[in-house]
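Progress note, sequence design subtask.
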């Protein structure tokens, strides 16, 4: 709904500036920008996109009329304003190159107030705005792979975006070019009807169609549907006039060929005189030089934050005021901000230039829970900050990454930097045979199969290496306590076998040269579980695998968020003495493993009578599965508790469209610490008996025998309901 109102602005001096820039957008005089600290900014009513209908009661329809009335008006001036709801001019799913050089998916919306509203669609998720008026020029460039990229050049940064189709990319180029021309205050130097060659509607050949053309003083030629729509905001296309050649084909067809670096137009007139007039104007016109334009150092964000300070008593956090501009991050002490009130702040106590910024990431550890941000500079210095809340943290983080930190553009012939990615393919309890007779023959251990992905030797390739790690229990795995690592690249063989020991009869035999026996023997009571482990291990043993692709694979994030998670691991039943008495292994596939015995000597057999309490207390602590002192079995571990993790629900194209839940240590999803393959009959539901302090938690039970389950606690009933609704359609 439109609003009409008057705004009284008091200028600093008579005939002084109002502190606003005006544009002629869609045929109306609008507020294009507001100068920070100027008269209009201090008054506080005007916003970008407001339409100026009059000055001191006199109607105004053009920029010249508004400017003339402002110059004649007294120090106090009244503007008649029409405010319309901000609407979406253009919306697309694009990919933008980030400071790291990676291409990330975004939702881009060009708004009627000439701002670009963006939402990052991959973790870490954030949203913000880009001031399109800061753009100085556009370049349509071609990457080595042939993809077209739109480069948006500002005074402080280069943005690069890709679209799904070339038509989408050209539309963004057109609309942003119109925004650039608003601030250039371009003049109309020639206009009229011309014929333009286009593909025929029949799909074969070409045809000429009438359009209204306007040549602007910056060397840009645009065309419109008709004369009435010839205003910025309604153009159908444009071309910078870099080369122009006229030609007379016959008495009724006179053509003009116009070329630039990214397109060619063929125009025609029916008279030679008209052709010569247009050709003369086009040859005189020259595209404006972007380097000659002053850079607009706009204020992108400002507010309170906390910064650390070392004292004799230790580290303390002090309140500061920050102002983030396109060119720099400026810091002011709290006392200086309060003393300045609404006046100038003066010189900052610290300033960090945008060109000196390298990365901006979410803090880890204690700072994570205080909405901390870490800005790394090009010389390796770390600037730690704490925002006042989650929304403020996300806004500051997105503004730094999108608007300030320079984007690393790969030079021709060089490869883009790629980070290492760690994926957890499988985790769970298995029985492991002891490698010494001093220990109990079988003990449960928590096994984790991980794959590390790095950049490959050639462009567009990756190297994937498998690693098997085991811990005393799942709790130790969560904190990486006392891990034992088996590098699968050194393993030579994986086999399955049958054994007589109850609950471990389905065996997995892994041959590795770095073990004294050369063999690791694992067991489980469920054949399906043992076979699944064997299949995965067989695939990942041997040399690292080199393949075409990029780090991260084809999995797509369906939903992600920070939340508290409790892992309920599937546990096999404990082995009894009777089970351990039957420990002969019968190999299915290799005679070399056909007879493996563990026999107790008669003199070592357990006594028939129960030992006395004194003898038990005097006995040494039990040995672990590897002969070391410690927990006799994984059953000694404590109950799992809730812990914070970044949880992502991903669609796996390679698994028939199934979903997986994954846990990560960071929003960048580079280090995976847990994975749950959901399957088609997955169940997700709130708890029948809610846990105190975790009343919003829900349980996810995957499809599969002997599967682990997760308890997820997003923090609200609504969030839990949304997650359940997203997970269940995979059933």
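Output:
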């Amino acid at each position: 709904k439109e609003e009409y109102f008057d705004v009284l602005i008091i200028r600093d001096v008579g005939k002084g500036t109002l502190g606003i820039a005006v544009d002629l957008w869609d045929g109306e005089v609008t507020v294009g920008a507001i100068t920070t600290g100027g008269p209009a900014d201090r008054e506080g009513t005007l916003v970008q996109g407001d339409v100026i209908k009059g000055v001191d009661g006199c109607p105004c329809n053009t920029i010249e009329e508004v400017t003339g009335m402002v110059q004649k008006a007294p120090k106090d001036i009244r503007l008649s304003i029409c405010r319309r709801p901000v609407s979406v001019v253009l919306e697309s799913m694009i990919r933008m190159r980030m400071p790291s050089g990676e291409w990330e998916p975004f939702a881009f919306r060009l708004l009627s107030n000439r701002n670009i509203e963006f939402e990052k669609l991959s973790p870490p998720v954030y949203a913000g705005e880009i001031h399109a008026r800061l753009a100085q020029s556009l370049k349509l460039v071609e990457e080595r792979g042939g993809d077209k990229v739109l480069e948006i050049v500002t005074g402080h940064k280069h943005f690069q975006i890709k679209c799904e189709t070339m038509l989408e990319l050209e539309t963004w180029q057109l609309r942003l070019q119109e925004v650039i021309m608003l601030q250039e205050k371009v003049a109309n130097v020639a206009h009229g009807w011309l014929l333009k060659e286009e593909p025929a509607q029949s799909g074969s050949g070409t045809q000429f169609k009438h359009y209204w053309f306007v040549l602007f003083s910056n060397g840009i030629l645009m065309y419109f549907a008709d004369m009435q729509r010839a205003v910025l905001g309604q153009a159908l296309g444009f071309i910078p006039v870099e080369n122009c050649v006229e030609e007379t084909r016959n008495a009724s067809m006179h053509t003009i060929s116009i070329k630039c670096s990214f397109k060619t137009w063929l125009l025609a007139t029916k008279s030679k005189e008209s052709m010569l007039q247009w050709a003369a104007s086009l040859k005189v016109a020259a595209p404006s030089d972007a380097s000659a334009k002053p850079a607009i150092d706009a204020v992108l964000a400002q507010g309170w934050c906390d910064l650390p300070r070392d004292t004799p008593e230790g580290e303390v956090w002090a309140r500061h005021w920050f102002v983030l501009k396109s060119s720099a991050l400026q810091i002011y002490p709290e006392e200086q901000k309060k003393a300045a009130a609404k006046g100038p702040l003066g010189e900052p106590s610290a300033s960090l230039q945008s060109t000196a910024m390298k990365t901006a990431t979410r803090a880890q550890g204690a700072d994570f829970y205080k909405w901390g941000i870490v800005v790394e500079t090009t010389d390796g210095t770390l600037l730690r900050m704490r925002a006042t809340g989650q929304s403020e943290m996300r806004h500051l983080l997105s503004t730094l990454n999108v608007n300030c930190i320079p984007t690393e553009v790969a030079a021709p012939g060089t490869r883009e930097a790629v980070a290492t990615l760690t994926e957890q393919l499988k985790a769970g309890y298995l029985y492991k045979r002891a490698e010494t007779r001093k220990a109990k023959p079988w003990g449960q251990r928590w096994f984790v199969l991980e794959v590390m992905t790095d950049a490959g030797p050639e462009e567009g390739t990756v190297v994937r290496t498998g690693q098997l790690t085991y811990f005393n229990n799942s709790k130790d795995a969560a904190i990486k306590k006392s891990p034992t690592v088996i590098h699968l690249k050194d393993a030579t063989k994986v086999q399955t076998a049958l054994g007589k020991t109850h609950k471990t009869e389905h065996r997995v035999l892994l041959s590795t040269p770095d073990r004294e026996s050369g063999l690791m023997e694992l067991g489980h009571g469920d054949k399906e579980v043992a076979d699944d482990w064997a299949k995965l291990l067989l695939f990942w043993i041997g040399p690292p695998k080199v393949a075409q692709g990029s780090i991260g694979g084809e999995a797509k994030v369906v939903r992600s968020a920070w939340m508290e998670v409790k892992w309920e691991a599937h546990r096999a039943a404990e082995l009894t003495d009777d089970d351990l008495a039957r420990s002969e292994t019968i190999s299915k596939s290799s005679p070399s493993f056909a007879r493996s015995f563990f026999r107790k000597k008669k003199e070592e057999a357990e006594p028939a009578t129960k030992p006395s309490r004194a003898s038990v207390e005097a006995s040494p602590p039990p040995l672990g599965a590897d002969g070391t002192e410690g927990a006799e079995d994984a059953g000694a571990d404590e109950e799992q508790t809730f812990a914070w993790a970044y949880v992502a629900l991903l669609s796996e194209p390679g698994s028939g469209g199934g979903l997986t839940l994954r846990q990560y240590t960071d929003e960048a999803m580079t280090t995976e610490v847990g994975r749950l393959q959901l399957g088609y009959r997955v169940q997700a539901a709130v708890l029948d008996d809610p846990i105190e302090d975790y009343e919003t938690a829900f349980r996810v039970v995957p499809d599969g025998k002997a599967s682990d389950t997760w308890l997820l606690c997003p923090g609200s009933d609504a969030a839990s309901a949304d997650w359940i609704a997203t997970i269940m359609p995979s059933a």
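The longest helix spans residues 166-184. Work on this subtask will continue into the next period as scheduled.
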